């Protein structure tokens, strides 16, 4: 049987640090012009993104950092002199992206004839493609799914409509409990969650899901009300993926 591996990007394969250079100074500009603190403006930025995800998730502007920041600037009666998009292009560079867990080595090991590797990210293509290109990770994937390409937020089942009819084992790999575990299980996918907590390393990856509630204070996306929906396996490092995926394929 074929296997399709759907990989999240941020906090799964990479930590993007140039995003701070692209967005941070614009948040500070709003703070300086309005007399508010940068913390207040940053919270408004996060609140606006959260509001969009809750109220209009499949709108292409839901994850558009430039539109969100301009909306926040208007709330503070400030006009920005630069755009997030222009700064994103300006500051995109490999030195400011941390590649996690020797991801290129792991991805190369996973590239086999019966497997298809796909990026499935909540971020828009204009923000994620530069990250994949400057790190060289783009070469490992045959497809990139983003909200603006699919017409849906990653949390909507139709985001994966392109692969709905594929007769394959579908495995979603990511760090976000709702996006990559709960939604994946609702879609009928297997789920592997990356949880880099050293205390979990002594347990088998397939035993760790039952233990996640004990570490919920260290997992910022863990559901506040708890959950009985668990990932199929938990890896503390991507380097555990080849063995874990082989075991899922063998079931």
Folded structure, characterized:
- The strands form 2 sheets. A 6-stranded parallel β-sheet has the order 5-4-1-6-7-8, sandwiched between helices. A two-stranded antiparallel ribbon has the order 2-3.
- 39% of the residues lie in helices and 14% in strands.
- By secondary structure, the chain is α/β, with parallel strands linked by helices.
- The radius of gyration is 19 Å and the shape is globular.
- It contains 9 helices and 8 strands.
- Helix 1 crosses helix 2 and helix 2 (38-55) crosses helix 3.
- It has helices at 18-34, 38-55, 65-75, 84-91, 103-110, 125-135, 147-150, 177-186, 241-250, and strands at 2-7, 14-16, 97-99, 115-120, 143-145, 168-174, 190-194, 233-235.
What attributes characterize this protein structure?
251 residues, two-stranded antiparallel ribbon, alpha/beta, 14% strand, 6-stranded parallel sheet
The count of helical stretches stands at 9
Count of distinct strands: 8
Assess the beta-strand content as a share of residues: 5-15%
> H/E order of the elements?
EEHHHHEHEHEHEHEEH
Strand order of the largest sheet: 5-4-1-6-7-8
Q: What composes the largest sheet?
A: 6 strands, parallel
Radius of gyration: 19 Å
Going by helix content, strand content and strand pairing, the class is alpha/beta
Principal-axis shape: globular
N-to-C CA distance: 11 Å
Helix content: 25-40%
């Amino acid at each position: 049987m074929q296997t399709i591996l759907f990989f999240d990007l941020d906090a799964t394969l990479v930590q993007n640090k140039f995003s701070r250079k692209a967005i941070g100074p614009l948040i500070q500009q709003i703070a300086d012009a309005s007399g508010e603190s940068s913390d207040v403006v940053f919270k408004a930025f996060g609140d606006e993104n959260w509001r969009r995800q809750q109220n209009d998730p499949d709108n292409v502007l839901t994850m558009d950092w430039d539109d969100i920041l301009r909306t926040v600037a208007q709330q503070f009666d400030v006009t920005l002199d630069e755009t997030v998009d222009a700064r994103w292009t300006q500051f995109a560079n490999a030195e400011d992206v941390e590649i996690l867990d020797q991801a290129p080595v792991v991805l190369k090991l996973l590239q086999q004839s019966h497997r298809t590797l796909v990026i499935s990210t909540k971020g828009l293509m204009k923000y994620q493609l530069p990250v994949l290109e400057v790190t060289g990770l783009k070469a490992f994937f045959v497809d990139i799914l983003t909200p603006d390409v699919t017409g849906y937020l990653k949390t909507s089942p139709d985001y994966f409509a392109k692969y709905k009819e594929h007769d394959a084992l579908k495995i979603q790999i990511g760090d976000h409990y709702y996006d990559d575990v709960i939604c994946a299980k609702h879609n009928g996918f297997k789920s592997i969650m990356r949880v880099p907590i050293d205390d979990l390393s002594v347990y088998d990856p397939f035993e760790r899901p039952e233990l996640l509630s004990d570490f919920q204070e260290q997992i910022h996306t863990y559901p506040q009300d708890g959950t009985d929906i668990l990932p199929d396996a938990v890896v503390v490092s991507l380097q555990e993926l080849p063995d874990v995926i082989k075991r899922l394929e063998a079931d």
